[in-house]
Amino acid sequence: MDDAVRFGVVGLGTQGTLYARLVSQGRAPALRLAAVCGSNPASRATDRHSALAAELGVPLFTDYTALLESGEVDAVVITTPHYEHPAFAIEALRRGVHTLLEKPAGVYTLQVERMLAAGAEHPDATLAMMFNQRANPLYSDLKRAIDSGLFGELRHSSWIITSWWRPDAYYASSPWRATWGGEGGGVLVNQAPHQLDLWQWLCGAPERVFARAQFGFRRDIPVEDEVNAVVDFGHGATGHFMTGTNDLVGTDRLELLFDRGKVLVEGSSRITTWLLNDDERTIARTMSPEDAAKAPSGALDLSTFWSSDSRDYASRWGEQHAAVLQNFGEHVLDGTPLLASGLDGLAQVKLANAMHLSAWTGRDVDLAHLDATQYLAELNSRIAAEGRYPTRE
């Protein structure tokens, strides 16, 4: 481990294969690919997994425990189905194997909390999240600007993220997809976790949430395919989050309103900022009666009160994922601060759970006092109604 962390990839679907190739190609030099772990021997994908392992020159394991106890790896990334994430992480942490989790950290809060408790019992083993959008230079630059106080205090935020349209064939591609028992939910669990994480990373964790969701709105599925949520960040700041999988054109638009400026992010690749000459309230209070009379009609040029700037960001495919992999390896080697920890994974799952619970019950949900037991009971009632998967504990 003096030069690189011996790294195993668990789960060889699209994401796991990407991570194995990125590490093998040297795009995360703090890691060295040492093994991969795929499906059991009876799986139809075994031949593909064997071919991948041979191509990359590493052993293929079909038993996860055998990989952890082989002595071949110091760390793993887990890219298995959502419900398995916490249990797989716990097995790794108990053996002192550093763990990077694909999003989400789990499906429901109780299982993620159990995972964090296991991590606390084994503090020498790292638990990190693959929230790769935190490595997007646009968002990392924006985070630094917000934290510096450049824009002042947050007043409102709105994120419309509908740029992941899915056709019927997508949902029919696997029997577990878009089910409560197999996947754990719809857009909040599958597509939107990165934005739920980024939103809190930039704005802080909401205190309360009220949500309305459509279940099987435009597709023949039992889970949510459209969600509108209103949140209270505290200190007078509010927010709106809208997501869905039915918008063929799609929108990715984040607005952040502060008392000294405004930020607009479009497509997660273009950012426009407006920096006010003074606090907005000061501008309003000190404006002359003559200028104030011109404002409603548009006769007053309000642009004299701010300076604006726009910038486009480009990101090569896999670049953000490679950055998180490298950060994870550097943390294991020398303690470099993590881009995203297991606690960040819990925050994302908790917000998604709160949106579900609010939509199911029709009431506000207090994030600090989220009833995780009630959430699991509501989830299990839906799993039982499907009649295809066992309920969860």
Automatic annotation (TrEMBL):
InterPro entries: Gfo/Idh/MocA-like_OxRdtase_N, Gfo/Idh/MocA_Oxidoreductase, GFO_IDH_MocA-like_dom, NAD(P)-bd_dom_sf
Top-rank taxon, per record: Bacteria
Segments forming domain GFO/IDH/MocA-like oxidoreductase: 140-263
Annotated ranges, domain Gfo/Idh/MocA-like oxidoreductase N-terminal: 5-122
Stored SUPFAM superfamilies: Glyceraldehyde-3-phosphate dehydrogenase-like, C-terminal domain, NAD(P)-binding Rossmann-fold domains
PANTHER family: D-GLUCOSIDE 3-DEHYDROGENASE, UDP-N-ACETYL-2-AMINO-2-DEOXY-D-GLUCURONATE OXIDASE
Name of the protein this chain belongs to: Dehydrogenase
